[in-house]
Amino acid sequence: MSSPSTGPVVRVPFSELQALLQAIFARHGCSAAVAAVLADNCASAQRDGAHSHGVFRIPGYVSTLASGWVDGRAEPQVTDLAPAYVQVDAKGGFAQPALAAARALLVAKARTAGIAVLAIHNSHHFAALWPDVEPFADEGLVALSVVNSMTCVVPHGARKPLFGTNPIAFAAPCAGHDPIVFDMATSAMAHGDVQIAARAGEQLPSGMGVDAAGQPTTDPKAILEGGALLPFGGHKGSALSMMVELLAAALTGGHFSWEFDWSGHPGAKTPWTGQLLIVIDPAKAQGQRFAQRSRELVEQMQEAGLTRMPGERRYREREVALREGVGLSERELAELQTLAG
Ligand code: NDP
Ligand code: PYC
User: Fold this and answer.
1) I need a labelling partner for 47 at 20 to 30 A (CA). Which of 81, 133, 134, 274 fits?
2) Residue 253 CB: number of other CB atoms within 10 A?
3) Is 206 a catalytic residue?
4) Where are the annotated coiled coils located (predicted)?
5) Is 193 a catalytic residue?
6) Which of 184, 298, 313 to mutate to test the pocket of ligand 1 (most atoms within 8 A of CB)?
């Protein structure tokens, strides 16, 4: 995870940042409902120190909306497909409002059947994935989500980029603790972190990507300008990335990461793909025991010497941000205020 941009830091109350981002989304072509959902998502990422998908993304959202590539006023169409299957056509809009529109039906189905699937297609996802799963665990449910993005990753053993950075996020309740959450790109690095490193003039660790000639490079600009990322963990990360393409695109009816052409929309940055969520109600088989068993697992991991759980850094940053305000550079705040008009 890259650090925030350098320069003097100002601290803004979370609700003020939400309101500022909401004003930007509304001013640049989103309906009030979409603006509220996206602002909450992006402000939450900034609050939790998830900088690759916090306010860093706002210029990309704005240029994409201006290009006409995404419909900020789209009204998702929810279909109750089967006892445990909900489908949403996001109508060329963002994935998060599509999830919001289907959420109550999805949870009701998961509680009744013990498991339910939400398949979103015709959607744009430009954000961190954990905000899509963590709230389910807050309600005692287990959630898994995958989303595919845009071609920039060479499959293990292949010659040219094909996959997206294709993240996987998972959340589970844990008795007496914040939910257990992990959220990770299946590429060696998120594309956003490569952009942040390029902007900061930093080199990357080795093994992240290749240049335009297919040669290993630590230069983020070489990866962004004609090069590509690698999957994490060689053939294993590559297999997970392939799975994400299958579940988020082939299964939902969305585009594969290489299937959309945004060249006619200069400024477009948001991948037009699909997203899958699987929600399980552990109470169906385990009663209240699952959260207790999660706790036992965490305790055993700690006993084994683990000092940092996935998600823990975010929770720590969240606690500080809610107490002292969300950290932004002075320049970022000024840019946001300009965009909000
Ligand atoms: P990271 O590699 O930073 O982190 C991945 C996970 O590992 C997080 O849950 C993190 O927890 C945890 N973690 C990190 N370091 C440790 C450690 N030392 N010990 C234990 N756990 C650790 O994430 P990525 O760079 O892979 O992805 C960043 C973001 O980019 C994600 O939110 C992802 O959803 C997003 N993304 C979005 C895409 C899209 O198409 N919308 C595409 C690709 C990525 P913690 O959060 O607490 O640091
Ligand atoms: O950081 O890889 C990334 C990414 C792709 C789409 C949105 N974020």
Assistant:
1) 274
2) 13
3) no
4) none
5) yes
6) 184
> Is 67 known to be catalytic?
no
Distance 305 CA to ligand 1 centre (A): 21
Rounded-to-integer distance, Cα 154 and Cα 162, Å: 6
Whose Cα sits closest to atom 32 in ligand 1?
A: 128
Distances (CA, A) of 14 to 59, 86, 138, 318: 20, 32, 20, 10
Residue type, 139: E
The residue from 2, 28, 48, 52 that is catalytic is 52
Predicted confidence (pLDDT) per residue in 266-296, tens digit? 999 999 999 999 999 999 988 789 999 999 9
Q: Which ligand is nearest to the CA of 96?
A: 1
* pLDDT of amino acid 1: 41
- Residues facing residue 187 across a β-bridge: 231
Task: Provide, rounded to the nearest whole percent, the portion of the chain with pLDDT above 70.
Answer: 98
Structural domains in the chain, sorted by start: 1-67+311-341 (1.10.1530.10), 75-187+231-310 (3.30.1370.60), 188-228 (3.30.60.50)
